Amino acid sequence: MPELLTVNGLEKNFKGLKAVNGFSAKLSENQIYGLIGTNGAGKTTVINMLSGVLKPSAGSVFFRGIEITGERPDKIAKLGILRTYQNLRLFKKVSVLQNVMIGAQIDKSYSNIEAILGMTRFRQEERKLEEKALNMLELMGIEDYAKERADSLPYGAQRKLEIARILAASPKLLLLDEPAAGLNPQESLELVQRLKKIREEFELAILLIEHDMKVVMSLCEYIYAMAAGQIIAEGEPKVIREDPKVIEAYLGRAKKDA
Ligand SMILES: Nc1ncnc2c1ncn2[C@@H]1O[C@H](COP(=O)(O)OP(=O)(O)OP(=O)(O)O)[C@@H](O)[C@H]1O
Ligand SMILES: [Mg+2]
Asked: Residues lining ligand 1, CB < 6 A?
């Protein structure tokens, strides 16, 4: 399987706190990876570094053999690494369709984005873009909301919109930060089915952070488990499920929460 992303010894220090302390991974094309771990393990910080939102304190990242360590988020996005956020970041006051059209413009200048939101000069390009955006909405099953304002959507549909938006940017690798957070079991199951279909259709790779073990175990082919900034176990779902360190990390938390 051709290699897509190589991560070597990634570290992030926040004033004395080693939030990530040596994260290494090899991701292949067309595979779905899980990143699990208890609260504060460093999962979001890893995605922040892979997407360029945070500069690593140490380590390196290569995308299809090109070093992207510490590059700006827009440059990384242009290469095809697109992410969602743990807390939704939609353009609340514009329509669902426009949100996706803006997502598709990741490699264009800001003036094009302004064009989408008002001017009529770019009609033809706009129509093509609109068609693509509608396709993405259909893939996520939220096409009926196309004309609604993004913030008027039910929460589950907003989470789907976030994914539709980054799909429009022709990603090679999706980094999803808790895409099923706040979804009910039925919505989570539906999301799993849609992500499987999307992977097949676009032949892309996905790395997703997720607390819902049903989602992780049914979707991911390979899982990285983190605790206190480090990888404590990695492997196929069945291996991870039985790993003593993983069980301890989760049971430890359950005891503390009880
Ligand atoms: N910008 C920041 N400045 C200082 N500390 C931070 C910053 N971002 C994260 N941290 C700390 O780094 C550690 C890892 O945080 P991170 O958000 O990566 O965890 P996580 O695994 O995503 O947790 P959760 O499951 O709760 O989302 C935590 O202790 C957090 O408080
Ligand atoms: Mg997080």
From this structure: 14, 17, 19, 37, 39-45, 86
Tokens of 253: 């938390």
Q: Which atom of ligand 1 is nearest to the CA of 47?
A: 18
Kindly identify the ligand whose nearest atom is closest to the C-alpha of 211: 1
Which residues touch 12 (CB under 8 Å, ≥6 apart)?
Answer: 18, 19, 20, 42, 45, 48, 49, 54, 56, 57
Q: Flag whether pLDDT at 257 surpasses 50.
A: no
Ligand 1 mutation target, pool 17, 18, 175, 213, most atoms within 8 A of CB: 17
Average pLDDT over residues 126-141: 92
Give the domains, in start order, of the chain with CATH numbers: 1-80+171-258 (3.40.50.300), 90-169 (no CATH)
Residues 61-115: tens digit of each pLDDT: 999 999 999 999 999 999 999 999 988 888 899 999 999 998 887 655 555 566 6
- Measured between alpha carbons, how far is 188 from 66 in angstroms, rounded to an integer? 35
